[in-house]
Amino acid sequence: MRSYLIPLVGAAVAAGVVASAGPGQDRSPWPQFRGPDGQGHVAGAVPHEWSEGKNVAWKTPLAGKGWSSPVIAGGKVWVTTAVPAAGGGHSLRVVGLDLQSGAVRHDVEVFAVAELVPLHARNTPASPTPAVVGGRVIASFGSDGVGCVDAATGKVVWRTAAFKVNYETGPGSSPVPYKDRVILPCDGADAQFVVALDAATGAVAWKTDRPAAAKRAPNERRAFSTPLVITVGGRDQVVIPGAHCVYSYDPDTGAELWRVAYTGFSNVPRPVFAHGLVYVSSGYFSHELTAIRPDGRGDVTDTHVAWRYKKGVPNVPSPIVVVDRLVMVSDQGVATCLDARTGTPKWTERLPGSYTASPLARGDSVYAFADDGKAVIFRAADEYVELGRNQLAGRIHATPAGVGDSLIVRTDAALYRLIGAKSR
């Protein structure tokens, strides 16, 4: 979502948190939720000041409803949306806009549905963020289906509606790229599993059940987190929080590697990984952040938890690690900075508004976007230092994307390209 910058690139490289494509992932500028590394880091000199009349390269209206974050492929920005159709149904669409001009190049119906599934007040039918794999844009609409659009032509390549689960409040988990596949969790009230799909055909490469929540009440089996692919000891893992348990799998086969139990469900934040630790948010009832050493096998709840932290943990926005500091912004706007290695708190600060979008970072500057369109920029340091505030019209629930010197920001009514001073 973000120069008042201290040159920390060398330190960030040492900490393993500079923006770069994760293991096995597409080399597009912004191929998935939270960017190339999946952890919210922006490499370019993105702007730190903007408004409706300042540093806006273009603003393009978007029809329908959707909180999917922008991804970038083929010189285009891609989002999903749900547009009302005649007779009370909805058209679930993938929209591609020219990165330079903001002109709509593709507006493609992937699915037509007669009736929307039940939705939480903060959710939409088009909340999962697409993933880019090999010039293809793969979009999930939850139980309404998963579809693939060619990034060059905008034509639908494949569709599948094979993964129907009852989310009760609408979809949330985003597919993530891995090699020539996407990996997608499906954690509903009635079934919990994760699938890997061939990006070219939509065929199932593997499917693995997630049984830890099976004995809970149906509404406590749901989860909405997005996977994170990491490399530990030269071997890739995909870490996927679920209801009452986080699992790690072999992304090539779907075999479970390890798991850690906690109390919590309906969790949304994506994990982050730094300093040899995976940081996971547990969800409702507990709101706990757990730091896990991901080198174990089997149930490692009693052996591989490095620390836990319970105060101000978000249920929706994902945390971010900037060098040796972990920063999180709660749904209610409480920003917290911890020592990423030990969990020792550095500071807390009340930010204006409520928050759904996940923070981004450029260098040591953290960009937090509030639901009311306000953005607060502050430094990830041992003390809270605010660097600026900006405002756009409309509401922001989608996490922005960063490419070059531009931020791509989605509101409830439009998509913006915000530019730095060098582009004007």
Describe this structure in words.
The structure is a single chain. 2% of the residues lie in helices and 42% in strands. By secondary structure, the chain is mainly beta. It has a single domain (9-423), classed as YVTN repeat-like/Quinoprotein amine dehydrogenase (Methylamine Dehydrogenase, Chain H, 7 Propeller). The strands form 8 sheets. The chain has a 5-stranded mixed β-sheet with strand order 14-15-16-17-21, with no helix packed on it. Strands 1-33-32-31 form a 4-stranded antiparallel β-sheet, with no helix packed on it. A 4-stranded antiparallel β-sheet has the order 2-3-4-5, with no helix packed on it. Residues 1-20 have low confidence and may be disordered.
Overview in brief:
The protein is mainly beta and 424 residues long. It has 1 helix and 33 strands.
Helical fraction equals under 10%
Strand content: 35-45%
Mean pLDDT: 92
CATH superfamily: YVTN repeat-like/Quinoprotein amine dehydrogenase
CATH class, anyone? Mainly Beta
Biggest β-sheet strands, sense, barrel: 5 strands, mixed
**At CATH's second level, what is the architecture?**
7 Propeller
Terminus-to-terminus distance = 20 Å
Shape annotation: globular
CATH topology: Methylamine Dehydrogenase, Chain H
Pfam families: PQQ_2 (PF13360)
Protein name: Serine/threonine-protein kinase AfsK
Organism: Urbifossiella limnaea
GO molecular function, one term: protein serine/threonine kinase activity
